[in-house]
């Protein structure tokens, strides 16, 4: 699973999910990409599941870039714990995704293969996505 090696603060505030993306909006590395249409928190398990689908479909051809990284900690308190007693422990890490962000990029394979692989990967993610290509 993806997670940061070291963080400045162990626990973080819940931030708003509004607005459009201003970074990761253009294809930088590959010719094909998977772009989000909604905002969401994507956890490291979902990123790994999508990555595995892409690599298994492409087999040994092509190169894949993951443009998002789960660096925000999410805390959870155990069940049947009364109110108070502080914030819970860190449970997992998420990547904050906004509309217009490119999550995955690919290159080195045909457009049909890339489109099919990225659409299969989008089924593993909790947001609506669109396949894009470099003009």
Task: Supply database-style keywords.
single chain, 20% helix, Aldehyde Oxidoreductase, domain 3, 3-stranded antiparallel β-sheet, alpha+beta, 7 strands, 135 residues
SSE topology sketch:
Blueprint: E1 32-36, E2 40-43, H1 44-58, E3 63-66, E4 72-76, E5 89-97, E6 102-107, H2 111-122, E7 129-133
Helix pairs in contact: 1-2
Helix and strand string, N-terminal first? EEHEEEEHE
What is the global morphology? elongated
Cα Rg: 17 Å
* Beta-strand percent range: 25-35%
Catalogue the unreliable spans.
none
What class would the helix/strand composition place it in? alpha+beta
Explain this structure to me?
The structure is a single chain. The protein has a domain at 44-76 and 90-133: Alpha-Beta Complex (Aldehyde Oxidoreductase, domain 3), CATH 3.90.1170.10. The strands form 2 sheets. It has a 4-stranded antiparallel sheet, covered by helices on one side. It has a 3-stranded antiparallel sheet with strand order 2-5-4. 20% of the residues lie in helices and 28% in strands. The protein is elongated and about 55 Å long. It is built from 2 helices and 7 strands. The model has no long low-confidence stretch (mean pLDDT 93). With 135 residues, the protein is α+β, with helices and mostly antiparallel strands. It starts with 31 loop residues before the first strand and ends with a strand. It has helices at residues 44-58, 111-122; strands at 32-36, 40-43, 63-66, 72-76, 89-97, 102-107, 129-133. The longest helix is centred in the middle third of the chain and has 15 residues, at 44-58.
């Amino acid at each position: 699973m993806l997670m940061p090696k070291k963080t400045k603060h162990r626990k973080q505030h819940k931030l708003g999910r509004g607005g459009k993306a201003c970074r990761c909006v253009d294809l930088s590395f590959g010719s094909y990409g998977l772009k989000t249409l909604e905002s969401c928190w994507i956890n490291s398990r979902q990123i790994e599941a999508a990555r595995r689908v892409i690599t298994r479909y492409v087999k040994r051809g092509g190169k894949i870039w993951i443009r998002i990284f789960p660096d925000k900690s999410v805390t959870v308190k155990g069940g049947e714990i009364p109110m108070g007693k502080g914030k819970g422990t860190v449970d997992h890490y998420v990547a904050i995704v906004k509309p217009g962000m490119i999550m995955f990029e690919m290159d080195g394979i045909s457009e049909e293969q890339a489109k099919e692989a990225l659409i299969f990967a989008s089924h593993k993610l909790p947001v609506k996505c669109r396949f894009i290509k470099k003009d």
